[in-house]
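Hey, resending since the last one bounced:
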Amino acid sequence: MSNSETVSLSSFCRHHNLPKSSVFDRCLALGIPTSEGLNPASCDLLLSEFHISPVSAGKEQAATSVQADVDYGTAIVLAAPSLPQTYCLEGLRNSEGLGFEDPLAIAAQFLANASSVQLAMQQDIVQRQQRLADTQRAKQQIAAQAQALQLEAAIYKMQSQGLDTALSSESAQLTEQLQQLNSMGKPAPGAG
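The structure tokens again:
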């Protein structure tokens, strides 16, 4: 390729077995115009961008003498259309799914609450077990004392009955003796 010649983008891509869309995109990125073909400097720059070593002038001429170079003309390049920046997927769906906005936050809250409830249940069981143990100890202490009290009450009953019997007997004898003493005395003046 001589310095004054230009080559079409299609021809360049075909000659170097490169995809035209990739080369065109690289031309846009590098600011290389393509509408009137590629000049030799642009071709060399593109070859280095795609890591292809440039073909020497003698080899290129030999290659062009063996293979005909067909120019397909320049492609009409359209400007990129302006696309919307906001899209709505609702029109693509035919159903609505119900869901929570932040299910992981809900799960974390549930787990924290469940842990608190589990801890409270465990503490309640420990307290109930302690209350049962205290009640059993109290019952054992009372049972021993209640048995002693019952025995003591039986003894008390027998002793009190014996004492009451003795007191009644003694009181009856005392009353009898007082009556004997009274029978020996003279009546008080003005009595009877």
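The longest helix spans residues 103-184.

Sorry for the duplicate.
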